[in-house]
Automatic annotation (TrEMBL), chain A:
One of its GO terms (biological process) is transmembrane transport. SUPFAM superfamilies: MetI-like. InterPro entries: ABC_transporter_permease, MetI-like, MetI-like_sf. This is Sugar ABC transporter permease. It comes from Nonomuraea rhodomycinica. The lineage of its organism: Bacteria, Bacillati, Actinomycetota, Actinomycetes, Streptosporangiales. It is a multi-pass membrane protein. Belongs to the binding-protein-dependent transport system permease family. Keywords: Cell membrane, Membrane, Transmembrane, Transmembrane helix, Transport. It comes from the Bacteria. Pfam families: BPD_transp_1 (PF00528).
From TrEMBL, chain B:
One of its GO terms (cellular component) is cell envelope. This is Carbohydrate ABC transporter, N-acetylglucosamine/diacetylchitobiose-binding protein. PROSITE patterns: TAT. Transmembrane segments: none annotated. It is found in: Cell envelope. The gene is ngcE. Keywords: Signal, Transport. The keyword Transport applies. Residues 1-27 form the signal peptide.
Length: 307, 471
């Protein structure tokens, strides 16, 4: 018996060894090393960095640009999930139940909903870098821009979507929402599909309109999925990098108006060659992310509705 | 099923074997580790007049070229063959990348950098960081070596003194600029001729010309690479130096108190803010250098500030009869400290020899070959630009833009200015880029603009972790 158990342990170990090894080498160990590098003045090229204690962290508190980046991340953390979930829920509802009694008699989506579902998913298929370059062209400030072209044809002053520091952040947010919505439409559609049809029918027989169908039936029964979406989108908002770095002028500009934590870490490491300081920023970002994870796990502990 | 002890040992062995690389990987991941220095001088070769650095004839040489506006053909077709004529046994590997930092920084951290690097472009490695860590080979022996062509002429005498000044870090000459970048305002000689416009000699004439062009309705007067406002702080600083003398820029480089908020800087910032408010092509703030330069090629805008690489960069979109021309910054007042024709010139395409490379002697020899008359002349012709080697362009067929820039340099004589803060202090550069964009779009007044840059300069001055330089 004992031997059997030993064999089983060995079997499991054999399977886990490879992934755990990879995880240790490429995830855990760099994290630990980052904590060490954060306490040195390493500039990336020497083999013998000097230990400076908490100097980098002290410096970080006076770094106006980094805190600007933190504020942008915080704004994204609130706005990105909110907008994405509202829009995605609305679309998912329309695609699945919003059509009311279709010609066939059952509950269904609005006409052409299958086609829309595919179209909504398109942005998700594109690589982030592709999206960023694409939107650089969409946002071009001259007549060749997809948005400014028509505006200028109508005689309106062109909008500096990426070149006006007051507008640029909203452009970034818009692109992120545009890219995220498709996936959550599909996610919520799947959630809706698992809600028993007769619940909707019963509500309809009782005279519920589209509005009350959505708020009384759909939303409460989808609450679990919405929470998952919130956590995913929150993580997306905290570690946003590629969209900002590729799409915006001066990597997070103009005038640092779109910069985010990850962009500042990259800038400090690879253009200022302050790897020690960049690691310190990374450590701070690590604690922000862990903090967010703990809070969201706490808040999402809620009883499930069984059906 | 029977389990023999052998079976278990085999598994343990496998498991043990799997864990060995883990330990190695954990130790070598991101943190730098000092290694025993590479045996760079296995058997030192005697130096001689023909071989001043003691190059081992058969030692391989690894060269990395920045694949930017000049491409890489000049290294493969001009420099490598020339080096080969002298060292036919040496294996030369020419590599190229647009991402110098990403590719080569890990090699420095790992202690095995290549032998020659063209550390240029937007993703170049920070010279300050390299110098601070003693990663740059002292190139003084190169200056004192006889030139490739003539044993009686030292390399030092071939070079513009600015090359040596700019390439000196901590009192050691360690960076060789190969191209002489000449900055000015660029225009189409054809467009100016056809419309009867004249390159302006004074700032008033410049403003009048902008007005004339604007009123003509044919094109916008002025633009710059709005996404990269460093294209605009260049003429702003040069104009300030013209008004107040080269020390305006020296003070900025040395992080002196109030260097940015000096009177000449205020005049220049106000002058350029006016251009930004009145004469810019629509949408300038959101366009990059290629888009604005292409607009100029399409005769949508008359003038833009740039450097002598412009003509080569635009060769595919320039109409055949466009005829690039360049004029220096006009006189601001009658009492400017520096005369008309003053230019900002700066050596670029910065070549370094890493101190910890395997073959630094070969690296220096490669640079000596590059500085030969033939290599530099062929280079100028191929990439339509001006090299730092004196007289290398003589008797060569120069394109209109390169000819115009060369003429401006000759006319300027000793009246050239330069600044180095942007390569020394990358943080200050980013702040200047951000603030200059704001100045030109009206988000900052000239005074607030300079105060903001002064504040950043003071911050850097007080930050003990940033290495300081003096000129």
């Amino acid at each position: 018996m004992l031997f059997q158990r030993y064999r089983r342990g060995l079997f499991i170990t054999a399977f886990l060894a490879a992934p755990v090894t990879l995880y240790l080498v490429y995830v855990i160990s760099p994290y630990i090393q980052a904590f060490y590098i954060a306490m040195t003045d390493w500039r990336g090229v020497t083999a013998t960095p000097r230990f400076v204690g908490f100097d980098n962290f002290a410096r970080l508190f006076a770094d106006g640009i980094f805190w600007k980046a933190v504020r942008h991340n915080a704004a994204l953390l609130v706005l990105l999930p909110l907008l994405t979930i509202v829009i995605a829920l609305f679309f998912a509802f329309l695609l699945n139940v919003g059509g009311g009694n279709g010609g066939s008699g059952g509950l269904g989506g609005i006409r052409g909903s299958k086609l829309y579902r595919v179209i909504f998913f398109f942005p998700q298929v594109l690589a982030v870098a592709v999206v960023a370059v694409l939107f650089q062209q969409v946002f071009r400030p001259d007549g060749s821009g997809m948005l400014n072209g028509p505006l200028m044809a109508l005689g309106v002053e062109p909008v500096g979507f990426l070149s006006n520091p007051d507008v640029a952040f909203w452009s970034v947010l818009g692109v992120m929402v545009w890219q995220a919505v498709g996936f959550y439409v599909v996610l919520f559609s799947a959630g809706l599909a698992s809600i028993p049809r007769d619940m909707f029918e019963a509500a309809q027989i009782d005279g519920a309109g589209r509005g009350s169908l959505f708020f009384r039936i759909t939303l409460p029964l989808l609450w679990d999925t919405v929470q998952v979406a919130w956590v995913y989108l929150g993580i997306l908002a905290l570690d946003v990098f590629a969209i900002v770095w590729v799409m915006t002028d001066q990597h997070g500009g103009p005038d640092f108006s779109t910069t985010v934590m990850a962009a500042e870490i990259y800038r400090n490491a690879f253009s200022y060659f302050r790897f020690g300081y960049a690691s310190a920023l990374g450590v701070v970002m690590f604690f922000f992310t862990v903090g967010f994870a703990i809070i969201s796990l706490r808040l999402s502990r809620r009883e499930r509705i069984e059906y | 099923m029977t389990d023999t002890p052998q079976n278990i040992t085999r598994r343990q062995l496998l498991r043990g074997a799997a864990l060995v690389p883990v330990a190695g990987a954990l130790a070598a991941c991101a943190t730098p580790a000092s290694k025993a220095p590479a045996s760079s001088s296995a058997a030192p070769v005697a130096t001689s007049a023909a071989n001043p650095f003691g190059v081992a004839a058969d030692k391989p040489l690894e060269v990395w070229i920045f694949d930017g506006g000049f491409g890489t053909a000049y290294a493969k077709d001009i420099h490598q063959p020339l080096f080969k004529t002298k060292y036919p046994q040496a294996q030369i590997k020419i590599e190229s990348t647009k991402e110098i930092t990403k590719v080569l920084q890990p090699r420095f951290a790992g202690g095995n950098p290549p032998d020659v690097i063209d550390n240029s472009g937007a993703n170049a490695m920070d010279f300050g960081a390299l110098a601070q860590d003693g990663q740059l080979h002292d190139l003084t022996p190169l200056l004192d070596a006889p030139s490739w062509d003539d044993p009686n002429v030292k390399v030092r005498d071939l070079l513009d003194p600015a090359v040596i000044e700019i390439g000196t870090y901590d009192g050691t000459f360690s960076v060789l600029g190969y191209v002489n970048y000449i900055f000015g305002i660029w225009y189409s000689q054809k467009a100016f001729r056809d419309n009867g416009w004249q390159p302006p000699k004074t700032w008033d004439e410049f403003l009048k010309l902008c007005d004339t062009i604007k009123k003509s309705g044919k094109m916008a007067p002025f633009t710059y690479a709005g996404k990269f406002p460093q294209y605009l702080y260049e003429p702003l600083l040069t104009l300030a130096a013209k008004i107040g003398g080269p020390e305006v820029l020296v003070n900025i480089d040395n992080l002196e108190d109030g260097a940015w908020t000096s009177e000449p800087m205020k005049q220049s910032a106000a002058a350029w803010a006016e251009i930004g408010a009145k004469y810019l092509m629509e949408g300038t703030a959101g366009l990059d250098h290629v888009q604005t330069q292409t607009a100029q090629n399409k005769y949508k805008v008359a003038m833009l500030p740039s450097g002598s690489w412009l003509e080569n960069e635009q060769k595919t979109t320039t109409p055949a009869d466009f005829e690039y021309g360049m004029f220096p910054l006009p006189d601001f007042t009658g009492s400017d400290k520096m005369p008309y024709g003053t230019l900002h010139t700066s050596p670029g395409e910065n070549f370094i020899v890493p101190a910890k490379g395997a073959n630094p002697q070969g690296g220096m020899e490669y640079l000596r070959a590059m500085l030969s008359k033939k290599a530099a002349g062929d280079f100028s012709e191929l990439v339509r630009t001006v090299s730092v080697v004196k007289g290398a362009g003589e008797g060569r067929q120069l394109s209109p833009g390169a000819a115009s820039a060369s003429k401006a340099v000759t006319a300027a004589g000793a009246n050239t200015v330069t600044y180095r803060w942007q390569t020394w202090y990358a943080q200050l550069k980013d702040e200047a880029i951000a603030a200059t964009g704001e100045l030109m779009t009206g988000g900052l007044t000239p005074d607030k603009y300079l105060e903001r840059l002064q504040k950043k300069a003071d911050e850097i001055k007080g930050d003990s972790s940033i290495k300081k330089f003096k000129r």
